[in-house]
Amino acid sequence: MNPIKHLPNFITSLNLLCGCLAILSLAIGNPLDAAYLVIAAVCHIRFL
Question: How many domains does the chain have?
Fold first, then answer.
């Protein structure tokens, strides 16, 4: 199994996780945490 083959899927999954956690953070009233998660998702996109 070649781990490089799965790297784009892993990064996409991290983006999905960051987005979901950002929405949950906004729902419970933590906009700063949500902003950090969105910034983390943008950084993950840069690696693609």
Answer: 1
Q: What torsion do the CA atoms of 12, 15, 39, 45 make, to the nearest 10 degrees?
A: 10
Which ranges of the chain would DSSP assign to H, the alpha helix?
A: 7-28, 31-47
Between 1 and 28, the more confident residue is 28
Residue 22 lies in a domain: yes
Residues with Cβ within 8 Å of residue 12, at least 6 apart in sequence: 48
Q: For the chain, what is the radius of gyration of the CA atoms?
A: 12
Q: What is the pLDDT of residues 9-28, one digit of tens each?
A: 888 899 999 999 999 999 99
Token couple for 1 = 């199994």
Expressed as residue numbers, the domain containing 26 is 18-48
Among all chains, which residue has been given the structure tokens 């983006």?
15
